[in-house]
Amino acid sequence: MLPAVARGHLGWFHPCARLSVRMSSTGIDRKGILAERVAMVTGSTSGIGFAIARRLAQDGAHVVISSRKQQNVDRAVAQLQREGLSMAGTVCHVGKAEDRERLVATALEHCGAVDFLVCCAGVNPLVGSVLGTSEQIWDKILNVNVKSPALLLSQLLPYMEKRKGAVTLVSSIAAYFPAAELGVYNVSKTALLALTRTLALELAPKDIRVNCLVPGIIKTDFSKVLRGNESVCKYLREHHQMQRFGEPEDCAGIVSFLCSPDASYITGENIAVAGFSSRL
Ligand code: NAP
């Protein structure tokens, strides 16, 4: 029987019809700087992950997208394939070991290896104080936001070796400027900064780079509550140099760059895309 990913998407990857052109740092125009590379993006059927998946594919990569809900995967794959992009997808709740295994198996079955892993899936099921948080919620946030990228990467590592690949974790500006309302989420996103540096150190001998995208407030479903919060808006009016919320696409180009050979000597970095400086 075909895995869930195949339902409605027989045909899988197909050559990218529309590749973007980017000027490389060497000044030479190159079509599809990620051509023939394979990218896996978690939490990628909407928001930031979706924009990243689209951009990696526009830059030439074959992309495997995933999220928890089959209908979201089907919709996102269909939309991106209609745009002529090389795309497949499967259901993967990153907190579930069997789903992670299926995601890896799906990518291998259809692509043979993986070059880039982008861990975008993240949750914030509780808005409130750290000390009022139940053990169950602690476990859920840390499992999905912090443990799952490391566990998925360990499963994928044997298939990423010798390919000069790259990993991008997705933290949050809340790691630098914790908001009282975000409690354990702040903690989990700060842990990702440490995970980035630790993995970068561990994987440097294998020529795999690990960096971290640190988004500010980006216009997605995830941030709706924050964007409607008066104290957040007040903070932005006072401190936010660019005076606007970000768009998911604002986060996409930098991830493509971090995957590309132009970033071949960049690892262990946390890069804010926030409309203001993350420096303390
Ligand atoms: P979003 O628009 O709500 O999209 C979330 C995506 O992740 C969806 O595709 C969702 O699809 C999937 N997802 C949710 N839980 C998942 C899980 N356990 N396993 C796998 N997939 C899951 O959110 P977003 O704003 O793009 O956020 C993406 C990442 O950026 C998160 O890690 C978040 O912490 C981070 N971030 C966001 C902002 C912001 O302002 N938006 C700022 C800083 C950092 P399903 O429902 O089908 O699973």
First-residue to last-residue Cα separation: 53 Å
The side-by-side strand order for the widest beta sheet comes to 5-4-3-6-7-8-9
User: Rg, please?
Assistant: 18 Å
Please indicate the percent range of residues in DSSP E strands (runs of 2 or more): 15-25%
The best one-word shape is: globular
Major sheet = 7 strands, parallel
Bound molecules: NADP nicotinamide-adenine-dinucleotide phosphate
Give the proportion of residues in helices.
Answer: 25-40%
**SSE run:** EEEHEHEHEHEHEHHHE
* Mean pLDDT over the full residue set: 88
Please characterize this protein's 3D structure.
- With 280 residues, this protein is an alpha/beta fold.
- Helices cover 39% and strands 15% of the residues.
- The protein is built from eight helices and nine strands.
- The strands form two sheets. It has a seven-stranded parallel sheet, sandwiched between helices.
- β1 and β2 (29-31) form a beta hairpin.
- α1 (47-58) crosses α8, α3 (97-111) runs parallel beside α4 and α4 runs parallel beside α5 (183-203).
- It is globular.
- The protein starts with 20 loop residues before the first strand and ends in a 7-residue tail after the last strand.
- The model is unreliable at 1-12 and 14-30 (pLDDT under 50).
- Bound molecules: NADP nicotinamide-adenine-dinucleotide phosphate.
- Residues 42-49, 67-69, 72, 92-95, 120-123, 144, 170, 172, 215, 217-218, 220-223 line the site of NADP nicotinamide-adenine-dinucleotide phosphate (NAP).
- It comes from Piliocolobus tephrosceles (Ugandan red Colobus).
- Pfam families: adh_short_C2.
